[in-house]
Backbone:
């Protein structure tokens, strides 16, 4: 498979450092790591800084409802690595209208409303980020959940404004390897891991998990009895997103 004339099969034989370098050299300034500061995203940021790949941008989605510890951690990461993390926010007018029509806590009402809130607060800002990128680098891994069990190393996304290469350099890393890399490189650890959070989303919608629970169980807990296919929409096909209610 080729992307903008580049043979993607070359990525398969490279390690993570090589994959990041491949993208930075071919698409400088138009390659971005999107992260919510889980270990996998931090490993990518650490490699980007260690390899001096200044052509790779680093961004996060600030839904304006992130856990307070995450806002503090953004500053910790910026200070430790001497980088600027781009914080992309939702459109204020759209959020005002959504809250006026459905209330601030609309996500309790139904899955449809939760997905709509996520669409405005997370997916749309990410789509705007992708408008400025050729390569979107994520920390997605097969071991993160059942629904991510088939995560590929790369895929080409067909978007309204052109194609984007979605690259998941850590796609086949097991949890033990992630933990070992964090330790080996003394990578900053989000403080909420110590409180049982497996990932870091919005207040109320993200909670810690108990030992043995599915990592996604901590998201939108009030839907646990309904089904376990809980996603914010960032990593689902365009056609499966709830864009209006
Ligand atoms: S996680 Fe909750 S508050 Fe955050 S965007 Fe989704 S539904 Fe809205």
Residues:
């Amino acid at each position: 498979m080729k992307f903008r004339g580049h043979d993607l099969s070359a990525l398969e034989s490279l390690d993570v450092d090589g994959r990041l370098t491949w993208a930075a050299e071919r698409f400088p300034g138009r390659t971005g790591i999107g992260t919510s500061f889980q270990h996998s995203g931090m490993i990518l940021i650490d490699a980007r800084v260690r390899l001096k790949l200044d052509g790779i941008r680093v961004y996060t989605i600030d839904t304006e409802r992130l856990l307070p510890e995450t806002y503090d951690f953004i500053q910790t990461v910026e200070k430790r690595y001497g980088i600027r993390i781009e914080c992309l926010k939702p459109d204020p007018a759209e959020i005002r209208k959504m809250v006026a029509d459905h209330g601030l806590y609309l996500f309790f009402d139904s899955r449809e409303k939760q997905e709509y809130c996520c669409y405005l607060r997370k997916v749309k800002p990410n789509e705007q980020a992708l408008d400025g990128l050729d390569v979107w680098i994520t920390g997605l891994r097969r071991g993160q959940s059942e629904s991510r069990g088939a995560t590929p190393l790369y895929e080409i996304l067909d978007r309204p404004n052109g194609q984007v290469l979605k690259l998941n350099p850590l796609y086949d890393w097991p949890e033990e390897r992630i933990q070992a890399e964090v330790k080996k490189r003394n990578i900053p650890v989000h403080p909420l891991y110590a409180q049982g959070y497996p990932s870091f989303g919005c207040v109320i919608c993200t909670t810690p998990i108990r030992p043995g629970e599915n990592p996604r169980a901590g998201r939108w807990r009030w839907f646990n009895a309904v089904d376990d296919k809980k996603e914010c929409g960032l990593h689902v096909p365009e056609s499966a997103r709830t864009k209006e209610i």
